[in-house]
Amino acid sequence: MNTSKQNIYYKNLINKIESKKVNIGVIGIGYVGLPLALSFSQKGINVIGFDINKNVINTLKEGHSHINHIDSIEVKEGVNSKKFFPTDDFSFINKIDVILICVPTPLNDKREPDLSFLTNSISLIKSYLKKGQLISIESTTYPGTTYEVVKPLIELNNLKIGNNFFLTYSPEREDPGNQDFKRSEIPKIVGGDTRFCAEIGKKTYELINSNVILVSSSKTAEMTKLLENVFRAVNIGLINELKVVAEHLDLDINEIINAASSKPFGFKPFFPGPGVGGHCIPIDPIYLSWKAKKEFNLQIKFIDLADEINSRMPNHVINKLKVSLEKRSKKIKGCKILILGISYKKNIDDCRESPSLEITKSLIKMGANVSYNDPFFPFFYFDNDKAECLKCLDLTIKNIENQDCVILLTDHDIYKYQMIEKHSKLIIDTRGRFNRSEKIIKA
Description:
CATH class of the largest domain: Alpha Beta
CATH architecture of the largest domain: 3-Layer(aba) Sandwich
Structural class: alpha/beta
Helix content: 25-40%
Number of domains: 3
Strand order of the largest sheet: 3-2-1-4-5-6-7-8
Largest sheet: 8 strands, mixed
Oligomer: single chain
């Protein structure tokens, strides 16, 4: 590890990073990869963004963002300055010094980790890898993936991690739509399994963030990311369960949470909803649960229970709707129902794992006459075979008055809540945006 030849690769890459002459490649320029690529390009670093989606590449080349909360001005500036170059030609990897992989890591049909996007990415680039490069994985995964899965794939190419090639794990910490923190203000975790790997990884991310926290290994960094999301999933599960208890007690859980939040210590507010969505909370904790069961025969009861509670919330919403309609001598079948919000959380154009999808599909299957409104989705396919496309319904007074029920599933700030309340016959409120009344049903 300390021979002069081995030091050359380390020193050369460190010199490139410190002099800002390093070339960065980002594989997967979506919700995680695009802001990361722009962060480096805005610091004057040359960045190539790789993606297999030609439509995404063409959109970015034209200077337009394909993600709502990322301003097209940022993309245009990066492209025009030639500091950001989007492409689907992976042969450019041989011109790259640091490769950041930001691809999805979903669950498969058996609710087990699906690393195919990650392993396929390595397969796409392996023939273009060369000595002296760094790969940093940003995709969320179970502890051990970087060392046990990615490292062997790279070393098939006569490359030796920590010797003539470098590998780190640095979990993404994107929170789409969150305006409270600048990207450069969110501390970055980096874990490498050799000293050279760790130091190069740290130097790389210090180009865009002054607070880079180095941990002892890639496995530690992987576990850190999962802890963050397990914490959220368990607390959301707790508050969703307490919401049901509060309903039976004829209490408003949102009022209770706001009151408890006045305590300046020992309490952190979490809010209930119709379920959980996005690329993190419904998926990441399951990665850790799967790893514990598969390798150590351990059951992480908190994770499993939180997943069970959060997964049954869509049915809870439908049951509240059913009971509320029955009190008005109506049934779901044939009822005109307006869904407000398709994305998994407010003010973003991301509907991955959104509980709105499950609820809408179930209502359509039950025979309801369903329409929807979401400012970020002008049209949407709710059936898997894409046989029928629904068009976003304008939120006019006439359209609202024509509905038997409005279900608020995603509380976008753009909605005119007073107008919606005034002209609705019945509202199922899953987000605590309305005050309780005879026609406002909390769910």
